[in-house]
Amino acid sequence: GLADVMARLGGCEVGRLRIGIGQPPEPIAAEDYVLGRFDAGEEAAIQPAIRTAADAVENWVFDGLVAVMDRYNASNENKPVEPATNGSTEPNGCDRNQGPDDGTEANV
Known about the structure:
Blueprint: H1 2-9, E1 16-18, H2 30-35, H3 40-63, H4 65-72, E2 105-107
Parallel strand pairs: 1-2
């Protein structure tokens, strides 16, 4: 999982792209919700996000992470990029739930 990737990279200050999924409906565990297959309605709903994520990855390659965050993260508008914090209980100080204001990810 993400904790293993961060451990192998030696820290959490790496770029990553996340697609928002909202809150899992009760009583489904978050892990089951994230790792489960899409039903027909969810499949149709996720397609625009997948296209946007693919565009973001291409922009990331050519324009860099900061440009992609500025373009795709609405919450980053007019906000300076700050380094990730280290006050986490995750391995290597990484918090897998850090939001877009940690300066290390583009959210689509």
